[in-house]
Design brief:
Blueprint (H helix, E strand, L loop, with lengths): L7 H49 L7 E5 L2 E5 L1 H57 L8
Antiparallel strand pairs: 1-2
Amino acid sequence: MTSPAPTKEQQEFIRKLQTEREKLQVLSKEYQKFITTRQQFDAQLNENELVLSEFGRLKDNSEVFKLVGPLLVKQEVPEAVSTVKKRINFIKGELERCDKNITGSEEKQARSRDALAKIQQQYQAKMQAAAAAAGGAPPRS
């Protein structure tokens, strides 16, 4: 026994389902990128905070060098500390931006999942109504 060809209404529901699934997949990939970016900034923050704590352990006559290309260039300690503090502030700002992106992405995914569930429920209700109208048993999932 072959099942009848889907009606235009059923085809429309199927198209909506596919579109919403694809949208959810794109949102999921976007979310993963935001998470990866946040993890990278978090690692950079930890690294820079470690450097700052090491600066606190320096003796008065210590020398600090910074890598510029293939060269090590001598740098004044207060200048190096200032640079690292600025970098930490910048990274914290980027982390806040990442957190906002992650929250926004989570909300978009939730809305997309809700829309997908609603479309599925509507489709199932239509299928059950059509089966009942045809006098058959409702299709099983």
